[in-house]
Structure formats: structure tokens, C-alpha cells
Amino acid sequence: MQELRVGVLGFGVVGRGVVELLLTQGALLQQRTGVRLRLVRIATRTPSRNGDLALGEVELTDDLQRVVAAEDIDVVVEVIGGLEPARSLLEQALRSGKHVVTANKALLAMHGADLVPLAVANRCELMFEAAVAGAIPIIKVLRESLAANRIDQLYGILNGTCNYILTEMRERGSSFADVLRDAQAKGFAEADPSFDVDGIDAAHKLVLLAAIAFGSYPDFSQVHIEGIRHVSDVDIQWATEMGYRIKLLGIAKQDAEGVELRVQPTLVPVSSMVASVEGVYNAVFVRGHAAGTTMYHGRGAGERPTASAVVADLVEIARNWRVGCVGRVAAFSCLSENLRAFPVRATDEWRGEYYLRLAVADRPGVLAEVTRVLAEHQISLDAIHQKGRSAVAAVPLIMVTHATTERQIRLALREIEGLDAVQETPRFIRIEPSVV
Ligand SMILES: NC(=O)c1ccc[n+]([C@@H]2O[C@H](COP(=O)([O-])OP(=O)(O)OC[C@H]3O[C@@H](n4cnc5c(N)ncnc54)[C@H](OP(=O)(O)O)[C@@H]3O)[C@@H](O)[C@H]2O)c1
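Above: inputs. Below: predicted complex with NAP.
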């Protein structure tokens, strides 16, 4: 039996899941690949934190070089996370001819454009199914199952923590701060939640999906990123009342003039499938010119779901290796020489419908002042809502616009913020009425 020797870097949530799958599913993996995937060594900062896994002959070390520089390792699994030392370690592994599997979306989003050519030059595989949407095999789908399609749009819920927070805010009628605190206590949010709630994690994933779908290297600087900190319980209540849900969506669109890459809170119709994706679940929707829109739903994180994707990459490497082939499927779908950079459409040119929330003094004439400014910027309204009376505090004024440009919205809101009656910075949330 041919043997592929595996070394794992990092022994945290995902590392543990990978080790467990390799140790318990060896026979099944062997039946499927014709190769024995032998776990040789795990290198991590604190090897003493082994938990209760029976590792048998597997070596546990704090020396990362015992994986990346070792003669007896063929494939390196990187589940340390972060940019360094992960980047240097993977470069070293690829230079010494080792295949690499990683779950590290941050690293690929920032340095994929350097790592992929390095893998190609060294005739190594660089696989990263687990980096996007955990157990959902979306990278394989984009590269292989939808390979016949021109893809002009994909969107999805790419961060389970944000989706959990937004779901809980709606179901419990609680504020962002309260739900975040609770999510941290339950382990659904990190102690430092900024990567998740500020949209950065979703943006890392979006830029990888867009690179594969559109045929470019990932360029993280192209993504417009807004998180969910400014989504209030008032927004959630009003969205519900008007027949919408608020979701943090990653959206990638391309047309002849360029691409739009954005992570943003978005109002979606309550009847849409994306609205029904709740809690920690992820979902990705892809529009291919031949296939139409297809949807992929599942667990986007967690020990076993993420490990499932990592080990699937190991299986693919084993299958390729058994028949003497490498680089069968290019990392970003198109061959490196065919990847192109796309112009990015300026945010000012984006067009769509908008939800607006103002906090205004409750006195006659305020609505007329606000609508006058909107009309001066050619913004017409689909709906206006104002509830509650308050002699002292501001009351919310909620409006939904017809399609307009982002430039007009920003100019109008700047002017509206200067009105005497307006007591807080106006907020807007984009609406995507045509999601499925
Ligand atoms: N968790 C998920 O559900 C999930 C889902 C998809 C993708 N990912 C990605 O998978 C990767 C790993 O995530 P995770 O949740 O498993 O992280 P984690 O639980 O924090 O585990 C990281 C592991 O790497 C070790 N480590 C960190 N820095 C190190 C260093 N400089 N040298 C040696 N060891 C180091 C840690 O050791 P110590 O414990 O001693 O610090 C720990 O064993 C990340 O790129 C993440 O984005 C995670």
C-alpha cells in the first residue's frame, strides 16, 4: 500500500478535528484513495494541551521545523492561523516540495497571489477548501462542478458568528452588545470579535470565492467592508415589520465594466432562501449563465465540519498522487497565466434601493425638510414610517428608497445630518430585493 505521510501544524479546534478524522477514518480513506494517509507528526506551540486523543505512534512536538523541514513528511496541513509564522512555514514547505493543505483564509486572501505561483513552480498542491464556509464544498463546486459556467454573481452568508448575532437580535429583541456578550459566553464569538463582527473574516472568504469565480488573483484591498456593529435592534424590528431580514452578506458581482466586492449588512426579502439561513449556518448562492442559481448550505465552522473539508483536500492529494499527477485543478480555477486583474466599480456608482434610519425631533415640518433634501438629490421614496411620540428624545424616522446611486444617498444623508431636527448620524442599509 502506498503511503502519504502527513504532518499537522497547529493543534487547536481544527487541528484536533483533522487528527481525529485521520486516526479514526483511516480504513475508509484508504478504501477511497488506495493510499494510506499516515499521520506522522503534529507540531504546535503547547504540545502538553493534548486533550484526550489517543495519538499512538504519532509524534507531538513544539518544533514546527519537525514538520516543514522533515524528510518523512509529504503533506503539511497548516491549521495555526494568522499571517506569520504560517506564511513563512508554508513557503518553506512548498520550496522543499511538500504539498500543503490550509484552512487559513486570512493568509490566502492576503498572500494567495504569491503562494499559488510558488506551489506551481515547485510542482506542489496548495489546497484550501476549509478556508471558505467550513464544511460547504464551495471551492470544489466553483472550480469543478460549475466549470462550464460564466459566473456573474455570487453572494452568501459567510460568517456564522454574525449570522448568529443577527438571528438572536431578531428572535430575542435584544441589542447587538447584549447578544455579542452572550455569544462570547457560549463560545460562538471570540473574546476579540472584531474580525467577525467588522466583516473582515467574511471579506477574506469573499475575495477567495471571487478570485475562483471570476478568474483573478485575490486582491483584498478591492473589498468594500462593513460589519454589523451599527445594526440596531430598531433596524431589525423595522426590517421585520416591512417584510425583510437583515443579513451580513458577502456579494461579488461582475459585468463588462468591472467587479463589485462587498461585505455589508443587507435587507433581503423574508421570503428569500437566504433569509431562512439562520444561526451559525452559512450559505452561498452562485449564479452561473448555464446552471442558473444554485445554493450551498451547511455548517461554516467548528471542529468536525472544518476538519471534514481539510481531510477532503488530503484525499484529493492522495488520489492525484497515486496516479502521478499534480496541479490537475488550478488553485484559482484558471491557469495562472490566464488570471486577470479586474477594474473595481467605485462605490459611488453602485445602484440599488436603500433603507434609511434617522433620529429626528418629534415636531411638525421635520418630515417635509427631510423629503425636500432627498428630492433635491433625485431620490424617491417607496415607504416612510414614523412611530412614537416624544417631547424630549428623538424618534426614529424610517424610509425605503426606490433605486438610486450610492453617491446620491451619501450626498443627501450628509446634508440631512446638518438639519437642526436630525439628532444622530443617519444610517443606511442596502437592500437586495432580487436575492433568491
Ligand atoms: N475554528 C473554525 O471553526 C475554523 C473554521 C474554518 C477555518 N478556520 C481556520 O483554521 C485555522 C485554525 O483555526 P482554529 O480555530 O483551529 O485555531 P485555534 O483553535 O486557535 O488553534 C490554533 C493552533 O495553532 C497553534 N499555534 C498558534 N500560533 C502558533 C505558533 N506561532 N506556533 C505554533 N503553534 C501555534 C495553537 O497553539 P496554542 O494553543 O498553544 O496557542 C493552536 O494549537 C485558522 O486559519 C482559522 O481561520 C477555523
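The longest strand covers residues 244-255.
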